[in-house]
Amino acid sequence: MALRDVELVEEVPPEPGPTGRDDVRPPWRRHPRRTAAVAAVLVVAVAAAVGLELRTRADDAARVSALRAVPGVLGPVDPALPVARRLTADDAAGQVLAMALLHGVRAGGVTVTGGQDGSRGVVVGVDLGTGAEVWRTALPARGHEGDVELAHVWCTASQEDVTASRQGRRHPVEDGLVGCVSTWRPRVDDAAVLDGTTDVPTLFAVDPVDGRARQVAELPAGASTTRVDDGWVVVSAADGPVVVEHRGDDGASRWRTVLEGARSAPPPWSGPVVGRGAVLVTTPDDGAWLLGLSDGSVARRLPDARGTGGLVLPGGDVVVAERGQGEGPGVLHRADGTSDDLDGEVLVPVEVDDGSLGDVLLTSRGSLSVTLRRPDGAVVWRADAPLTQAMVVDGTVVGVTAGEVVRLDGDDGATRWRARRPLVDPYPYLLTDGAVVMLATTGGVDAWTFDGEPAWAGRPDRTSAEPRLRAVAPDPSPPPVGEEAPLDVFWAVTPDGRLLAQVAEQLLVLG
Question: Within 10 A of 120 (CB to CB), how many other CB atoms are there?
Answer without folding.
Answer: 15
